[in-house]
Amino acid sequence: MPELRIGEVAARSGIAASAIRFYESEGLLPNPDRESGRRVYDESILERLSLIDLAKRAGFSVAEIKKLLAGFARRTPPAERWRVLTEKKLKQLDERIAEAEQMKRVLRVVMSCRCPSLEDCSKAIHASRAAGREGE
Amino acid sequence: MPELRIGEVAARSGIAASAIRFYESEGLLPNPDRESGRRVYDESILERLSLIDLAKRAGFSVAEIKKLLAGFARRTPPAERWRVLTEKKLKQLDERIAEAEQMKRVLRVVMSCRCPSLEDCSKAIHASRAAGREGE
DNA sequence: CCTTGACTTCAAGTGTACTTGAAGAAGTAC
DNA sequence: GTACTTCTTCAAGTACACTTGAAGTCAAGG
């Protein structure tokens, strides 16, 4: 199994070396072996980094990801360890989607609007917000 | 027209006085009149603040909102002045929604997964990512 | 031997959007 | 006349996720 130094890991994963050191310092990554002081990784680091990246993009903070990975490390099924966190996050994602869609409505009104003044456009926007809340 | 002091504007708008001063310092709000040093606003400030709030929730940064409001101030129709910015933002919103939905898929896999190890779960996640890209 | 390049550590800096704290002034209440 | 509240300014602090800089180490190449 080929051993990688941090520069190569950074290049392959697209994650900056400084970020990799940071993740390590935060406990997201295990302490790697060293060769004359330098970090040496095997390729499994790439999967771990892509998992971290995925979790990040799922909206998890570094602190949360640490908890998630701690679950992995203990080899317990995620379902148990992650349930609360992932359910909360699923809700947040739904909220985020709903909010983004509301923003899209706002932007579409703004773009189609030929308002000569602030007041008119404000009114149009308020109307669109009301429309967005119709089904509540 | 009733004149409001910053505390009342804050109470009515739901935006902290410190945030209002901050927006002013950033050029999002005009310099208000003063009465013995204190800011005095008329009610139109409330509309302006709600517009700022709206733009914020549409994902615009303070710097961007400043540009948008500069357009308003010149009373040119938003459609022209905002086109580039809003179109870009619409794209970003679509990306954000797509990403959030991808993350939901990931989370659902993770939750239903009984992986004994990191590797298995990683595979399941990768499979779900591929599934998310089917139609591309 | 000396330079080069990739690495090391640790502290401090970055950007965003505010908030908080200190020290003081103005008008109101008793 | 002094206590209280609400305001004023300005500098510094907060949170997050890194990045950057300084100063030094290590192995390889010329």
What does this protein look like?
The structure is a homodimer of 136-residue chains. With 136 residues, the first copy, chain A, is mainly alpha-helical. Chain A folds into 2 domains: 1-75, Multidrug-efflux Transporter Regulator, Chain: A, Domain 2 (Orthogonal Bundle), CATH 1.10.1660; 83-136. Helices cover 68% and strands 7% of the residues of chain A. Chain A has helices at residues 6-13, 17-25, 44-57, 62-73, 78-112, 118-132, and strands at residues 4-5, 33-35, 38-41. The longest helix of chain A is centred in the C-terminal third of the chain and has 35 residues, at 78-112. Chains A and B meet through helix 3, helix 5 and helix 6 of A and helix 3, helix 5 and helix 6 of B. Chain A binds a DNA duplex (30 and 30 nucleotides) through residues 5-7, 16-19, 21-22, 26, 36-39, 56, 61-63.
Work out the strand percent of chain A.
5-15%
The overall strand count of chain A is 3
- How many domains make up the coordinates of chain A? 2
Radius of gyration of chain A: 23 Å
Share of residues in helices of chain A: 55-70%
What characteristic shape of chain A results from the CA principal axes? Answer: elongated
Q: Can you identify the CATH class of the largest domain in chain A?
A: Mainly Alpha
CATH-derived topology of the largest domain in chain A: Multidrug-efflux Transporter Regulator, Chain: A, Domain 2
Assembly status: homodimer
Largest sheet of chain A: 3 strands, antiparallel
State the distance separating the first and last CA atoms of chain A. 57 Å
Q: What's the pLDDT, averaged over the residues of chain A?
A: 79
Count of discrete alpha- or pi-helical segments spanning 4 or more residues of chain A: 6
